[in-house]
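Progress narrative, work stream C.
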Amino acid sequence: MFHMGLNSRVVKFGLLILGISVAGTAMSQSVRDQQIAERLAPAGQVCLAGEDCASGAPAATSTAAASSAAFDAGATYDQYCAMCHNTGMAGAPRREDADHWTARVADAGFSTLVGNAINGVNAMPPRGMCATCSDDDIASLVEYLSGASAE
């Protein structure tokens, strides 16, 4: 009889361990499914001009105007332009060479320099790698870089 009771206890203990492991697996699967769902959730939403967004605020009517209001030519130059124009890399005209910029503006004109900056020229890629810069932002950068103005 003692022998039968020991076997029964071992079986019960084994079933208990099996039940705990199955429950743990089911709970971890639930957590894993929740984490996957969070990673697959949309990062944002599309909000067109004139529509109300989920926040309830109307969308901006002009994203270009909004970005231009906060545009900082010095900071943008430092981020996108300085690497080449401070060192002369790949033949880029150096920022501190005022005589070169004066001659360049006189020869080609400010609008041509802006057009070259927008479209790219020689080794310079279009917009100098600033994909978020508007045409007006590029003109401000050319003005900052050359010391010349659009007038």
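Work stream C, second folded protein:
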Amino acid sequence: MTRRASLRARARILLACLLLLPGLGALALAQAPPAPPPSSGADPAATPPGDESVIGGEAGPDTGDIDEILEGEEEVLSGSGGFTYDPGNRRDPFKSLLIGPERPDRGPRPEGIPGLLIDEIQLLGIWRTPRGYVAQVRASNKSYLLREGDQVFDGDVVAIQKNEVVFKQQVQDPTALKPYREVVKNLPAR
């Protein structure tokens, strides 16, 4: 390589450095945190927050910012921040699915139709009367006559049709979208 080519290479490197330095300086200034605005009532000789101050002859950090942060956390924990959750008719997503429902125990089952469980009911027959259909069912070795609107222990009789009875059963499952489900009991085939 000749001396002339070597000088040209050095000149190119020097030119590239001169062109890149202003860009790097601007990038460094853009990444620096902004200076805090001066407060109008503050003493200009006072030290800015974050600097060490002398307390009782010993150097220690400024605790003003820490107190403000702790006050903010106390406000959040006390619930006075104004944030609430209204689940409407939906399940509260913040309640555990593993814990049982908060509904009170319904107590012992009463005698007769109000004490029947929908899962225990076996449909035996359906009759047409002047007031509508009546369903004959069996549960715990006893026979009962059900009409539309009758309430059983875990639901209601919604409809009685020619070949089926429709129940609305209350569901105790917190993951269910609706608090009930429809159960249809059909007449057995003969």
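The mean pLDDT is 76. No further action is required on this item.
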